Amino acid sequence: MDSSTALPVGTTVTVVLTKAGKVKVRYPATVVSDDGTHLVVEAAWAGDGVRDFGFVRFEGGDVFTEHYWRDRWYAVKAVRGGDGVLKGWYCDVTRPADVQGREVVVEDLDLDLWVSADRGTVLRLDEDEFAASGLEERDPWAAAAARRALDELELGAWADAA
């Protein structure tokens, strides 16, 4: 299957998040929509236990509606609690999504953005991890694209998934 071929609604896929060439996490998700460029899947919280960031907690029962683009350097995840209440949007700066058969492979580039449900809090995250990653030395073009993507997200590109 070509990377740009749209996946049928209801298809079960595996989201594979990589970082520095290694698989960070993989989890099942269900295709909500796909136009060949913008893929939307829904998945349950795939982490172990509770992850408390201080500004938000991810925990069992949370549902992520995840937006991936095959031509954008980020992914946007709307996060709802088990009660259906929106917690906010977690935005990952990534290379464009690569759909390989029934796998959605996404390379995390460390930079993240959090937008609270009331849109009152917008936090740039992990800029120190990005600086320490060595991407700017290894691949300056990709590093520049990642920084542009974070700026786009902060300026409101995340709202494409709202």
What does this structure look like?
The chain is of the alpha+beta class. It has one domain: Beta Barrel (FomD barrel-like fold), CATH 2.40.380. 15% of the residues lie in helices and 47% in strands. The chain contains 3 helices and 11 strands, in the order E-E-E-E-E-E-E-E-E-E-E-H-H-H. The longest helix has 15 residues. The model has no long low-confidence stretch (mean pLDDT 93). GO terms for molecular function: hydrolase activity.
Question: How do the helices and strands line up, and which of them pair or pack?
Answer:
Blueprint (H helix, E strand, L loop, with lengths): L11 E8 L2 E13 L3 E7 L6 E2 L4 E2 L4 E7 L4 E7 L5 E9 L3 E3 L2 E14 L5 E4 L1 H6 L2 H4 L1 H15 L8
Parallel strand pairs: 1-10
Antiparallel strand pairs: 1-2, 2-3, 3-6, 4-5, 6-7, 7-8, 8-10, 9-10, 10-11
InterPro entries: DUF402, FomD-like_sf, Ntdp-like
Pfam family, one: DUF402
Protein name: DUF402 domain-containing protein
Under the CATH scheme, the architecture is Beta Barrel
Give the SSE string: EEEEEEEEEEEHHH
Beta strand count = 11
Helix content: 10-25%
User: What's the name of the CATH homologous superfamily?
Assistant: FomD-like
- Individual helix count: 3
Instruction: Write down the overall geometry.
Output: globular
Features:
162 residues, alpha+beta, FomD barrel-like fold, seven-stranded mixed barrel, two-stranded antiparallel sheet, 15% helix, hydrolase activity, Ntdp-like, DUF402, DUF402 domain-containing protein, FomD-like_sf
